[in-house]
Amino acid sequence: MALHVNGSPESHHASSADVGNSITQRGFKITTRKLPILKAEPIEQMTARLGITPPEMIFGDNSVSIEHLASGWAVSFNAFDALDRVDKTGASMLQVAHSRKWQSSREKTHEGITEVVKPFDWSYSTDYKGSLRSNDPAFEPSTSPIPLDLLKRPDPILFFDDLVLYEDELADNGITMLSCKIRVMPARLLLLCRFFMRLDNVLFRIRDTRVYVDFGTGEVSREYIAKEAEFEAVRLV
Hints:
This protein starts with a strand and ends with a helix. Strand 2 (about 10-15) and strand 3 form a beta hairpin. A seven-stranded antiparallel beta sheet has the order 1-15-14-13-12-11-5. A six-stranded antiparallel beta sheet has the order 2-3-4-6-7-10. It has a two-stranded antiparallel sheet with strand order 8-9. The chain is mainly beta. It contains five helices and 15 strands.
């Protein structure tokens, strides 16, 4: 999927502990923010808003954004919006022996009363592709792939960052993680938001969202790919 915005020939760096790290390259401002894991009160607030128990490690203040300054169009990635895409009905929940163990580990007991976690996709699998503001143009279907040959060039990297949005060890039976990496070169940038899950002896799952910006043409492309395979099949490769 792709859209076009008009860039301009400029480059500028900025950094602040509050707003994160950023670079402005040819009319696009790229900002990353990487802060510590959320504390108890913000986690409780997020739980109430989401309607599900969040992962063990939630970096709710972390984010990545790409903004076209002239038009105001932007795409961003954050933990809350990603978790809001997790199935909350239980219909997509992995039906394996470990699911009951995980649910039991999340139950809380207060004065003999057990608070039972309602069913939902306890692997926190998300098809999150980034957040757009309601008045921003949406991505349009495109048959043009991201030009991997251009990304393989040894171009200088002007800006790089990676961060975790959330992580959970699935009751010590594997790992699930959503993370972002971004690199900015003089003529283009690539952002990768990857959901990775390993449920030991059961399943591997990867869901990748890539955002590619060509500064010369002003084209922004987004690609989403989902893959999964049984644990044993991957282990034998």
